[in-house]
Each structure stands twice: as C-alpha cells, then as structure tokens.
Amino acid sequence: MEVSRQALGGAGATDDLRIRQLRARQMLRGDITDADLDSYVEERVGLTTLEKAQNWARANAPWPLTFGLACCAIEMISVVGSPRMDAARFGAEVFRASPRQADMIILSGRVSIKMAPVIRRIYDQMLEPKWVIAMGVCSSSAGMFNNYAVVQGADKFVPVDVYIPGCPPRPEALMYGIIKLQNKIKGQPDLGWRERYHARGTEEVEQSSTGHARPEAESRHPNAGLEAPRS
Amino acid sequence: MDATGLELIAAGVRERLGEDAVVGTNLYREQATLEVAPGSIRDVLALLRDDEAEAWPHLMSVHGCDYLPEEPRLGVHYQLLSRERLDRLGVKVRVGTDEPVVPSVVDLFPTADYQEREVFDMFGVQFDGHPDMRRILMPEDYEGHPQRRDFPMGGEPVLFTFNEHEDPNSNA
Predict the structure, then answer these.
(1) Is the peptide bond before A168 cis (omega within 30 degrees of 0)?
(2) Residue A148's closest chain B neighbor by CA?
(3) What is the nearest CA distance from A88 to chain B, expressed in angstroms?
(4) How many CB atoms lie within 10 A of CB A62?
(5) What is the Cα–Cα distance from B160 to A205, expressed in whole angstroms?
(6) What confidence tens digit (pLDDT) does each residue in B22-59 have?
(7) B37, B46, B62: which is closest to B125 by C-alpha?
(8) Contact indicator for B99, B116 with CB cutoff of 8 Å
(9) What is the pLDDT of residue A226?
C-alpha cells in the first residue's frame, strides 16, 4: 500500500492526526528549526508546578479498596460494574483487593462496633495519601441505627473526606461524591453550603444534659438566642 | 396441632419422665408450646427426638426471650419440626436472672451450637455443657447482654430535635 505524503502547512494549519504524527517525526529528526520550532513547542508544552501535576495525577486515579459493608455496597458495585455509571471514566474503577494498593476506602454501609477496629486496621494499612468516603447515612451518622450495636458515624474512628447522604445513595450520588473527592484532591475543595451562602452561625448547637444549649456555644453565635430552646 | 394432640404429647412426656418434667402447655393460634422444667429439658428433647411414635427429629431454632417484669425473667425457646407429621412444636424453658443456667443440647442437636451462643450473647443465659460458650455476635470484650429489656438502648441523643416543641399543639 502506498503511503501518500503531503506538504505540511504552518503551525495550526490542520489537526489531522496523521499530519501531527508526521510533524512530530520531523521535530525529532531536527527538520523543524527556528520560528517553526518555537511555534511547535508553544503549541504543545504547558507549564505547571510539580504539586499540581501530582494532584492531577492522583485525582484521576483514586483506586478504591474492594470493601463493602452492607446494602450500600450493592450500589457501589453498580457504579463500577455497570456500563451505565462506569466509574472508569473518572479513573476510579480499579478496585484493589489489598489495602496497600488502594488510595481510597468507601465505607458502604453501617459500621458495627465489632467491625470498627477491623476498618481502622485496614485504613492504617493503606499507604498515604489516602481518602475516605462515607457512603450513606449509616456510615455518616448511623442513620436509623441509633442503638447499642452500630458506631454512630464512621468519623468517630477514621477521618472522612466526603459524606454521601442517602439510604442507600443512588449510584449517581456516589459518582458525584467521587467527583467531589477528585476536586478536593486537585486542590479545589468544594466548600459547604454555609460558605457559599454566607450562612455562618447557623450550626446546630449540641444539647447538654440540662436541656439548655451550652453557654460557650451560645456566645459563639450572635443569633443563638433565636435557636436556643425556650426553658 | 390441636389442644388434644398437645395434651397427649404432654401426657406422654409426663408418663415417662415424671409429673414435674412438664410445667404447662400453651396453644395459641395453632402454635403448640410445651413448657418444661429447666432441669429436664435435655431429657424432654431427647425423648421427643428419638420417640418412634412422636418423633420430632429437627431442631429448627433456639430463641432467647426476656419476660420482664415477669418472673422467672428469661426464657429459651426450642422450635421442633416433624416432617412426617407436617407440624411444629415449641418447647420452652424459663430461668431467672440470678442463676440463668440451662443444660446445653448441642450433643443432641449439633445445630444448637451457634444458636445457644447467640442466646448467651444477647440474653446472658449460660448453657451448661456447651463446648464453646462465648460471644458470637458482639465483640468479646463487650459488657452486658444487649437484648435484655433493662439494657439501655445505646446510641446517642438525636440531633436537630432539641428546639422542637414538646407539645405539637402549642405554638409557645
């Protein structure tokens, strides 16, 4: 088969793949010189910091741990295994069976107090940098399991980066959480709604045993009197 | 099973193991239950399992129960199944919390192994003669038996409810 060769125009004349390949070959041979070479380099080279490049690479390959806790795990599997969600588009599909090869752990389900030390050990075996996603209300805040057997929120024993509400969350919600985590890794922490809407001071105040809000919590918020329980 | 059949079974057990073996009978919504003295539970289950005329060869499950405030508080239920009779029979034992000891039936029904461990874990009933009497569901260093009725619920006070009106009809 005859390979047809055509004369190459200036930089940016065409984006045809074949032409770009030929130009790259010319550049490597040293056939492109002076102004042509300058424009060639300007088109193709970008400058950034090593940190940003590193975070970009990390954010696009957060390998999860093969780890499921309860019913949320089924939704988690459908994010990976179904072509509808296909977490491979975002680099998060390679479930690693060993915590030493995983970057992130998805706590998918309720965490019983018997399972908590196991999860902590698995988390400690993961190599830095590592991230934690609390998927569903159970691992975020124990959900409806306010009882003797379930840890009241997985953030009691591991640091959690992203909380995904839902019982269970839809696969779309998990994808959104993974993308949020990626943005966080890339150095764009998506701030909560209080920062976005300038809603500081509306935090829930923890109730003390006497039924009143704690005094230091009241003094911290100027509008706390509006929210404090009436005695 | 009807009441007559249950009384016949109770009479057969009393005839062979003595009058004190069977404490009482209960037929509720066609479910027959034989209440048995704790000391004779092994003899009763062995009799029901091996008897040619009244064979109940399968132990389907072992349950714990807390009857607070009744005394004796704790109960252990054995659910027997006869596939020939197409019927089920419950056998019940009541023990107090001061000495909650029931003879183990693991050597009669090997399936009772894990189930007796679960009853011990959740209700604190000690099964005398069990080969491996330790917790099965809760962590081994857990204190207390959480399914007892006087055990606290656990968990945490619920957030976001402190400023709700206690009386939903008042706006005060």
Answers:
(1) yes
(2) B154
(3) 37
(4) 22
(5) 9
(6) 888 888 888 899 999 888 899 899 888 888 777 888 99
(7) B62
(8) no
(9) 45
Q: How far apart are CA A183 and CA B129, in angstroms?
A: 60
Give chain A's mean pLDDT.
Answer: 80
Residue B125 has phi, psi (to 5 degrees) of -85, 125
Rounded distance between C-alpha atoms, residue B150 and residue B155, angstroms: 15
pLDDT bin (cut points 50, 70, 90) of residue B155 is: confident
- Total residues belonging to chain B: 172
* ∠ Cα A124 A129 A132 (to 5°): 65
pLDDT digits (tens, 9 = 90+) for A2-33: 666 655 555 555 568 888 888 888 888 888 88
Contact A132, A160 (CB under 8 A): yes
Mean pLDDT of A113-124: 91
Strands B58-66 and B74-82: antiparallel
User: Is A148 in Cβ contact with B146 (below 8 Å)?
Assistant: yes
Position A144: which residue type? M
Beta strands across the sheet bearing A162-164:
A104-108, A131-135, A162-164
Q: List the single residue in B151, B154, B163 with the smallest CB-CB distance to A229.
A: B163
pLDDT band (50, 70, 90) for residue A191: low
Residue length of chain A? 231
CB contact under 8 A, B157 and A207: yes
The ipTM (two decimal places) reads 0.73
What distances in angstroms separate CA A31 from CA A4, A11, A34, A208, one per listed residue?
19, 14, 10, 78
Considering only CB atoms, B155 lies closest to which of A114, A142, A206, namely: A142
Please tell me which of the candidates A114, A229, A230 has its beta carbon nearest to residue B138: A114
Decide if A228 and B159 are in contact by the 8 Å CB cutoff: no
Whole-number Å distance between alpha carbons of B165 and A208 = 17
A209 → chain B, closest CA residue:
B157
Proportion of chain B above pLDDT 70, given as a percent? 91
